[in-house]
Structure formats: C-alpha cells, structure tokens
Amino acid sequence: MPLPKSDWNSLTVEEEYVIVHKGTERPFTGEYNKEKASGMFVCRRCENSLYPSDSKFDSGCGWPSFDDEIDGAVRHETDADGRRTEILCANCDGHLGHVFKGERFTAKNTRHCVNSLSIKFINAEKWNAAHPDTPV
C-alpha cells in the first residue's frame, strides 16, 4: 500500500533531481543495478509497489532492468522529445526512467530502464511478513 502524500519519504538532493526533476543517475553507479535477491521494488518517494524481483534481469545497460510491472503501478508517457517513453510511479508521478520495446532481451520484449535512486528494495522475508496476501 503506498504512503499517503502527507507521509511521502523525504528525498536527498540526488533523489529529488531524478524523481522530481526527471534526471538520470550515471550508469553502473546505482545501488540496485546488480541486486539479485528475492523481494519487491517500490517507489522511493511513496512506497508504491512497482516491480517484483522476478521481473528483474541483467540487460548490461548500467541501470536496473525489468521486463514487467505490477498492473496499474507504472504510468507510461511520451517524453518531450517524442522519441522515448518515460515511466512514472502511477501513485506519485515520480520519474522512474524509460521503457524500451523490441530489444529482445527477454521473452516479453520489454525493458524498463529504472534509476536506482527512484526505487527501494524490500527483501522477500520483510515483504512477505508485511504483505501475507501478496507474497513474492
């Protein structure tokens, strides 16, 4: 369950640059690029559930990559340049990154390229204890 707006997490300057001002962290620097544990990735600002860990894969692009999202959790919007599709948290409109299709990295043929600064990881044990009706 996402946090109500009044309880959104405070952001560092770097997190605000990415989430609010639609910035991008440098490739291969994010804390979740190599994360392989089982759990759930949630929005760093509002804790909306975004990506189960089983949708994460190593694309080699330097950012966490996912080939699927939780239904209704991620909003897709054409970038101002008209060439890319931005992905945002459907709850708080926080910038997550971009989605690319047709690259053939996975059977789903989709790559959500996500900034680590936009997400938090909750390991399966902690997630399952708090969300017994939706375990990972």
Provide a descriptive summary of the structure in words.
By secondary structure, the protein is mostly beta strands. It has one domain: Beta Complex (Metal Binding Protein, Guanine Nucleotide Exchange Factor, Chain A), CATH 2.170.150.20. Helices cover 10% and strands 29% of the residues. The protein is built from two helices and nine strands, in the order H-E-E-E-E-E-E-E-E-E-H. The protein has helices at 13-19, 124-130, and strands spanning 39-43, 49-52, 56-57, 65-66, 74-78, 85-89, 95-101, 110-114, 119-123. The strands form two sheets. It has a six-stranded antiparallel beta sheet, with no helix packed on it. Strands 2-1-9 form a three-stranded antiparallel beta sheet. Strand 1 and strand 2 form a beta hairpin. The model has no long low-confidence stretch (mean pLDDT 96).
Features:
136 residues; mainly beta; 9 strands; 10% helix; 29% strand; globular
Strand and helix map with partners:
Blueprint (H helix, E strand, L loop, with lengths): L12 H7 L19 E5 L5 E4 L3 E2 L7 E2 L7 E5 L6 E5 L5 E7 L8 E5 L4 E5 H7 L6
Antiparallel strand pairs: 1-2, 1-9, 3-4, 4-8, 5-6, 6-7, 7-8
